[in-house]
Write a structure and sequence with these properties.
The complex is a heterodimer of chains A (about 290) and B (about 260).
Chain A (H helix, E strand, L loop, with lengths): L2 H27 L3 H27 L11 H13 L7 H32 L1 H14 L8 H8 L3 H25 L3 H9 L4 H38 L5 H10 L3 H29 L7
Helix pairs in contact in A: 1-9, 3-11, 4-5, 4-7, 4-9, 6-7, 7-9, 9-10, 9-11, 10-11
Chain B lengths: L1 E10 L8 E11 L4 E5 L6 H9 L6 E6 L2 E2 L7 E4 L11 H5 L1 H7 L6 H10 L15 H13 L5 E5 L7 H18 L2 E6 L2 H7 L2 E6 L4 E7 L14 H14 L10
Parallel strand pairs in B: 3-8, 3-9, 6-7, 7-8
Antiparallel strand pairs in B: 1-2, 1-4, 4-5, 9-10
Helix pairs in contact in B: 7-8
Classes of the chains: A mainly alpha (about 290), B alpha/beta (about 260).
Bound molecules: adenosine-5'-diphosphate and magnesium ion.
Chain lengths: ~290, ~260
């Protein structure tokens, strides 16, 4: 992925998430539950059509059997990976190690990113010190760091987690920064007139006001985490879903490649879903106020 | 008492633009418990005046004195209500109203009786557990007014608070605000661009004109209190309206005859 496309993608992701926050609102108030059901149906039909086209193309042998497996073959390989395992570990265990790496790197990035973003927004010196580094690091594709991380930290868990951490960190920082900067002035002024101290304004007005954008940053960051993880596992790993993709590729096991790719998609989707549920509980006003 | 003494505000022009004189030198005085309205077209410096009294902005020259003390920043003696309710969406209606008391006394020591009373006066009692974004615009503005008044400020500054509401709700809110004012008696500075609203609510109307923003006229309203909407049909009301429109619409010749 080129540097510009990657940056553009992260921005587009953020925009999509914002739009989503607003559109769920309009769906809730405008279209009835019936309409929502229709939209689900459309999604299902399109997905079914795609699988059908896939089955058709595979059956016509447009590509060699080794490069495009049939859907049945993928199901077979899936069952195999779940029951008998692949590369010495079951599919679940492979997913587990990947999830662990993502969660550790991602959570660390969120914790540090929110604090750094806040400090940058509030203390100009901190901003001037850190911003150039961020601007410099942001366009570098994560893959470029892998050889260095491997040289420095070997092929254990640390370089993978660090990679995820460093790719997610700038996104969380920048979203927190823009969340704090975007606090409506009137909210601050109302608190001032009620006699709030600076620290009270920070805790009771600025922090909660920035939360929706922090969550947007977290969701974009989670997507980026998965991208980085797969890259890391493809270079220096002996387990994990990303490793499965590469390993199966070496042995031309196209069915297993599909299994690994689909697993990455499903796990990524489920983690985003979990984050979305947390988001709805923590910032129910997102997109509404 | 609020004394506005020689207050003038100039915004420096950015990127080669000439500076904007937002407010020409202004003198006036507001007695305790008065309801003062400020009317004028957009851009005449109404918000600038309010921001200076509230202490959000410093005047370029001159001073504002509140009870003899110069204003140097925002303070709990002056509450503000804006056109947008600016409620805190992470707090329910009750906690929004209690916000100022929570800041001052801590969450546990809030005088719940006072909060209850305010919710009752505002007709918000049944909505106390609602989120602000679940309320209509008029209701939200009531919460904003309740949040401002619960700390018992001496002065209430309102910047076109009903400007975003439909005509019906606006009328309801006007009579509601007047009842509230009779009961609690804060000094009110109420900004509007609606001449009828200015006359209907105010003891005195400050009429402002733009380019540069200046106080062009002060009209003492002779209508009796309590005020009601039907007073717009009286001769006195028409007289005041003509008086004000003469200043705001000097090109309309009909206003100057009779
Ligand atoms: N922060 C600012 N910087 C520069 N010009 C400003 C600023 N605030 C207001 N002005 C200008 O001052 C004038 C008066 O503005 P304002 O007080 O908002 O008017 P009103 O509230 O009556 O519409 C306008 O011409 C406006 O463009
Ligand atoms: Mg204004």
């Amino acid at each position: 992925m080129s540097t510009q496309t990657q940056m553009a993608k992260a921005q587009a992701d953020a925009a999509t998430l914002q739009a989503e926050a607003q559109s769920t609102d309009t769906v809730g108030s405008g279209i009835s539950g019936d309409g929502r059901w229709h939209r689900r149906l459309v999604s299902l039909v399109v997905a079914a059509c795609l699988v059908a086209v896939w089955a058709l193309v595979a059956a016509m042998h447009v590509f060699s059997r080794a490069s495009l497996p049939t859907p049945m073959r993928v199901v077979h390989d899936f069952v195999h990976a779940v029951v008998r395992g692949y590369g010495g570990h079951s599919l679940l265990a492979q997913a587990e190690i990947s999830i662990e790496r993502v969660v550790v790197g991602f959570v660390a990035a969120v914790l540090l990113g929110v604090v750094v973003g806040m400090l940058m927004a509030i203390i100009p010196v901190v901003h001037d010190g850190i911003d150039p580094i961020l601007q410099f690091l942001r366009p570098i594709p994560p893959l470029a760091f892998i050889p260095l991380l491997v040289t420095w930290f070997g092929i254990g868990e640390l370089p993978k987690v660090l990679l995820i951490f460093f790719c997610t960190l700038p996104i969380v920082i920048l979203n927190t920064l823009s969340g704090v900067r975007g606090v409506q002035e009137s909210r601050l002024r109302v608190a001032q007139c009620l006699g709030a101290t600076r620290s009270q304004i920070l805790r009771h007005v600025i922090l909660p006001s920035a939360l929706p954008e922090v969550f947007t940053g977290m969701r974009v960051g989670l997507g980026v985490s998965w991208t980085c993880l797969v890259a890391a596992e493809m270079v220096a790993a002996s387990r994990g879903l990303g490793w499965m993709v590469l390993q199966a590729g070496h042995y031309l096991q196209s069915g297993m490649i599909f299994v690994a790719i689909i697993s990455i998609g499903v796990v990524g989707f489920l983690m985003d879903l979990a984050l979305r549920l947390i988001e709805q509980r923590v910032v129910p006003w997102k997109g509404k106020a | 008492m609020i004394q506005i003494e020689g207050v003038r505000k100039v915004f420096p022009g950015r990127a080669g633009n000439p500076p904007t004189v937002a407010l020409e030198e202004m003198h006036t005085q507001i007695e305790d418990g008065q309801f003062i309205t400020v009317v004028g077209p957009s851009g005449c410096g109404k918000t600038t005046l309010l921001n200076i009294i509230a202490g959000f902005e410093a005047p370029t020259v001159g001073t504002v004195l509140v009870d003899g003390q110069p204003v140097t920043g925002a303070g709990a003696d002056r509450a503000v209500v804006f056109q947008q309710a600016s409620l805190y969406p992470w707090l329910n209606v009750r906690d929004n109203v209690a916000f100022g008391l929570t800041l001052k006394h801590g969450r546990r020591s809030v005088d719940q009786g006072r909060v209850d009373e305010m919710l009752e006066i505002m007709g918000l009692a049944q909505f106390s557990r609602h989120a602000p974004y679940e309320l209509s615009g008029g209701m939200q503005q009531r919460v904003a007014i309740a949040r401002a008044l619960v700390v018992q400020p001496k002065i209430l500054l309102m910047d076109e608070p009903f400007g975003a509401l439909d005509a019906q709700t606006r009328g309801d809110m006007q009579s509601f605000l007047l009842q509230l004012w009779r009961r609690l008696r804060p000094t009110v500075l109420f900004i509007t661009h609606d001449v009828e609203e200015a006359i209907l609510l105010g003891d005195r109307v400050l009429v402002m004109t733009p380019r540069p923003g200046r106080l062009a006229e002060e009209v003492v309203v002779t209508l009796d209190r309590p005020r009601e909407y039907a007073m717009v049909l009286t001769d006195a009301f028409t007289l005041h309206k003509r008086q004000i429109l003469r200043v705001l619409r000097p090109d309309q010749a009909e206003l100057h005859t009779g």
